[in-house]
Automatic annotation (TrEMBL):
Biological function: May play a positive role in AHR-mediated (aromatic hydrocarbon receptor) signaling, possibly by influencing its receptivity for ligand and/or its nuclear targeting.
This protein's name: AH receptor-interacting protein
GO function term, MF aspect, one: peptidyl-prolyl cis-trans isomerase activity
TPR repeat coordinates: 171-204
Subunit (UniProt): Interacts with RET in the pituitary gland; this interaction prevents the formation of the AIP-survivin complex.
Gene3D superfamilies, alphabetized: 3.10.50.40, Tetratricopeptide repeat domain
InterPro entries: AIP/AIPL1/TTC9, PPIase_dom_sf, TPR-like_helical_dom_sf, TPR_rpt
């Protein structure tokens, strides 16, 4: 550009098949030769044991112990997805107990993705669709709990609202949404959600009362900060 030239001049990006069709070449002599004379490829990979002797690594590659490798959800069959969900759920719970909230959220997300993929193949509202949805809901609530701790409140609001649109009596969804509303200063909405929690499960009154007291304390602190911040503005 500084030299007054068109930066795109002479450049054309395309897939290898289009390149081969138009220019009769893949751009590399060895690949052109392989295209003419196809043959099996043999890759020699040198694996180096780490200094601790516990992991086998080479660059970004790692050799897993037999049976320890877990496929990504997109690479699994339907049966493998169903079998993997309880294991992934358990791994997420263990990570959460260890305080590894982000890692736990990723596990819950993977389990949800497996079930969502299966659910897409079912008729919405059918028995199989509902059964999968009921398996997704507790995982989604666990995911929301992680997001609460990560202070990603609007994501919690979205997910909990989607649950409550289908299951109006889900106490955990009301409670988590109430906490998210309180965190973003939606006071009336938080109070309404906590009231719904009490209506559905009166035994949770001590927990709800604690959340409401916390909200009231934060409101008083905010009012005091606002008075200090705006003191004298309107008298000038």
């Amino acid at each position: 550009i500084a030299a007054g030239k068109d930066p795109l001049e002479g450049q054309r990006h395309c897939c290898s098949i289009a390149q081969l069709h138009e220019h009769y070449s893949l751009g590399y002599p060895d690949l052109d030769e392989l295209q003419k004379n196809p043959q099996p490829l043999i890759f020699d990979i040198e694996v180096l044991r780490s200094a601790q002797g516990s992991a086998l690594t080479l660059g970004c590659w790692q050799v897993e112990a037999p049976g320890s490798y877990q496929q990504d959800p997109w690479a699994m069959t339907d049966e493998e997805k169903l079998q993997a969900v309880p294991l992934i759920h358990k791994e997420g719970n263990e990570l959460y107990r260890q305080g590894k909230v982000q890692e736990a959220a990723a596990k819950y997300y993977d389990a949800i993705a497996c079930l969502k993929n299966l659910q897409m193949k079912e008729q919405p509202g059918s028995p199989d669709w509902i059964e999968l949805d009921q398996k997704i809901t507790p995982l989604l609530l666990n995911y929301c709990q992680c997001k609460l701790q990560c202070e990603e409140y609007y994501e919690v609001l979205d997910h909990c609202s989607s649950i409550l649109n289908k299951y109006e009596d889900n106490v955990k969804a009301y409670f988590k949404r109430g906490k998210a509303h309180a965190a973003v200063w939606n006071v009336a909405e938080a109070q309404a959600d906590f009231a719904k929690v009490l209506a559905l499960d009166p035994s949770l009154r001590p927990v709800v009362s604690k959340e409401l007291r916390s909200l009231e304390t934060r409101l008083r602190e905010k009012d005091a900060e606002d008075k200090i911040r705006f003191k004298g503005i309107f008298s000038q």
